[in-house]
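To fix ideas, we quote verbatim a fold written out as tokens:
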Amino acid sequence: MPAHDPTPFQESEAQAAGSFTVERSPDGRWYTVTGACPVCRGRTVFRVAFGVLGPAKGRGRRTRPEPLTGSIPVYCQCGYPHPDRPPESPDSGCGAFWDVPVPPPPPGGATP
């Protein structure tokens, strides 16, 4: 992985570059996206909660949410200092954000 580039903080949409790993937690409630930020190249680990457990129509209570489809909006969380990052910023990165596609579920409908 290339070295981190301490770019000035700027909230901006970027195009995902390189490869990202998207893993679903065993209970189906979290997705973790790992890869390099396309702007500052810092290693980013972004975790997002997904799904609501509750009664399904005509069936009993769900034990895990349905798999996510589409894409996950990811924010740079490299953890490096970036000039001009406001102290009140909730992000710990350069301010870049981008979409990462969710991989399709495994064949046969099984979910990890």
